[in-house]
Amino acid sequence: MSWLSGLREVRPLLHLLVPLCIHWVAEEMTVSVLVDVTTSALCPGDSTCSKAIYINGLQQTIVGIFKMVVLPLLGQLSDEHGRKPLLLFTLSTAIFPFALLVWHQSEEFVYAYYVLRTISNIISQGSIFCITVAYAADVVDESKRAAVFSWITGLLSASHVLGDVLAWFLPEKYIFVVAIVLLTFCPIYLKFFLVETVILAPRNSPKLGWWAKIVDVFQQRYKSMRTAAEVVIFSPTLRGMALVSFFYELGMSGISSVLLYYLKAVFGFNKNQFSQLLMMVGIGSIFSQMLLLPILNPLVGEKVILCSALLASIAYAWLYGLAWAPWVPYLSASFGVIYVLVKPSTYAIISNASGSTNQGKAQTFIAGAQSISDLLSPIGMSPLTSWFLSSNAPFDCKGFSIICASICMIISLCFACLLKPDSSSSNDIEGSPETPLLSDN
Question: What are the residue boundaries of the structural domains of the chain, listed by start?
């Protein structure tokens, strides 16, 4: 069966996926409790905290600005210097912000947490998964990548479910401690067990002065970034996927940045309800990504799956935005079972349209384009959400900002319908000194 084939292809990635799953568990553990911690520190005694909403929006904006440069840069470095050192670097940055919340959870420490978390997100948010996908593409045959990517995203969902379960049962004072232990374990495991998949050809570097070396580094970065841009711009499929990803992320990131605060303000949800919602999406996602997508992909292809998932994301947004009772968010969350297929189908289309030596460049360049949406969405979502949650709203629709965000997903669906996915190994740049260690191309 297709899903069993995907499982067999995942086996060579064991030493990559074990620490990544632990990392995802640790990060997910903190999601539901952070809303209570930040609200209690910044707005003591209040269920609605406009300050926390604005700070989250500001954080997302800053991250979006820097990710536009950092993500493509990390992708280029992973193609040129190997996947392993970049994974070690990006995974390690997540440890330090939560250490502050273990130390203390006062208002000052929460502000310091936001500063460190912003830096960590600039480096690791999106880049970890993009480099992981590039690593998998080095090892897995092109025809089987969609099934493998669905397994990876399914494991991500399973990790989120386990993280939500731990957050539900663990006392709040232990959650950050356990998270730090798990986050510290991940880079140590990678260091000792992960095998590099990129063999670097020897480079003849003439001896240069320090100023000439600085100029040479900038020239190499410029040349590499120009190459990454050309790979995407000159491919109709990659260019179309950049637009699909941009508008989808513009809507979904805006919703994600305010959703938990919206549910807390409107229905009084707390850590337990947040964990239940996240677990619902996670459990359903495991089924859809590990079993459903590998079976459907050979029958209908990535484009049909992508369009169906985008349609489900629109329904998801509308139900949350128009939620009229506490049970409606649970109904909305059920659509997460389908819309989570946006990511694996996106990665598969991008990977199949990219050359073997440009996997990191293509994935992270498009992820960099997505980061522009992370920059733009809070500018509208944060003030709009705070306005409609306040008593000064022009009309009674507390989820109006979420409905507005759904328009971006509708635009994304329109671009997805125009896609003509192709398979191309011709995007390799001639003279590239890097070659995948394990590749069937």
Answer: 1-196, 220-419
Same fold across 1-196 and 220-419:
yes
Q: How far apart are CA 167 and CA 359, in angstroms?
A: 35
Residues pairing with 199 in the sheet:
435
| C-alpha to C-alpha distance for 164 and 88, rounded to whole angstroms | 25
Helices (H), 354-431: 359-389, 400-417
Q: Does domain 1-196 have CATH number 1.20.1250.20?
A: yes
In this structure, of 81-95, 126-140, 216-230, the range with the lowest mean pLDDT score is 216-230
Q: For residue 3, what are its two tokens? A: 């899903």
d(CA 255, CA 245): 15
Q: In angstroms, rounded to a whole number, what is the distance separating the alpha carbons of residues 12 and 196?
A: 12
Coil, strand or helix at 428: coil
E runs forming strands in 36-167? none
pLDDT in tens, 210-220: 556 556 656 66
The tokens for 243 are 């637009």
Q: 220-419 maps to which CATH number?
A: 1.20.1250.20
Amino acid at 400: F
Q: In 3D, which of 316, 317, 296, 295 has the Cα closest to residue 305?
A: 296
Is pLDDT larger for residue 434 or for residue 295? 295
In contact, 333 and 38? CB cutoff 8 Å: no
Q: CB under 8 Å to 260, separation ≥6 — which residues?
A: 31, 32, 35, 269, 274
How does DSSP classify residue 425? S
Task: Locate 334 and state its tokens.
Answer: 């059920």
Handedness of CA 304, 309, 314, 319 (dihedral sign): positive
Q: How far apart, in Å, do the first and last CA atoms of the chain sit?
A: 24
Nearest one of 89, 163, 98 to 128, comparing CA atoms: 89
User: Cα(43)–Cα(67) distance, rounded to whole angstroms?
Assistant: 30
Give per-residue pLDDT as tens, 55-101. 887 887 788 778 777 877 787 788 777 888 889 999 999 899 988 88
